[in-house]
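TL;DR need structure tokens for one chain.
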Amino acid sequence: MAWYPGAKRMELQPESDAQPAIKPTQFILHSIVAPWTPERTYEYWRDSTNLESHFGLGYDGSLAQFIGTETRADATGAANRRADGTGAVSLESASNTSASDPWTAAQVESIIKLGVWLHEKHGIPLRACRTASDPGFGYHRLFKEWNPDAHSCPGDARIKQFHDVIMPGIIARATGKTTQEDDVLSDADIKRIADAVYTKLLKTDGVLDAPAEATDYKTNKSWTWQSHIQDVTTRVRALQRAVDRLIASQTKS
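>> reply
TL;DR here they are.
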């Protein structure tokens, strides 16, 4: 089992030893709907329920780990452990009693640091999960398979932070970049590609084979894309004129 060096180790037993192993492929964020410290969250998991998360996060950014990240925890429905042995690392964070408040700056910083460690330790990819089983980062209500009781967790304010602050922060801290893995191309990327295509295909000689019946084929065996388009256009227009003349002659007769 793996223990994050940035968290206080408060190991839950017997769960830590008794529950099955997982291969961590996801990191899923929760709000515990209570303004609890990590110590109080640990006491709740230990004394009041047979459920648990891997981590507990206080308002001040203090973090505790209850179960190793390669052992199943029971906070996220079907993501806890799938049939192939993969599963999610879960974090419960202090919130108000309606889970309507945003994460504090200290909580955001702790989440980002932990997210970077999970990426480096377990190879969790730097993107939001695209499906319930897709490796990446997410929050409890993102997929119904994770949230069978249809909770609003972690709350609208925190979901906005996840997209606007948490994911960009983890990516930037881990790579120095700000876009998700396999993200769509930016407008600037698209323009550079379009310019390169235009230059290569429309302006550069020797890109495409010339038609073998071209009058200068022996001396010019390659045309640009633009030359091909112009040749086809010229032939089509000539054919249309011939058809028009044929139709006109048939009408007169």
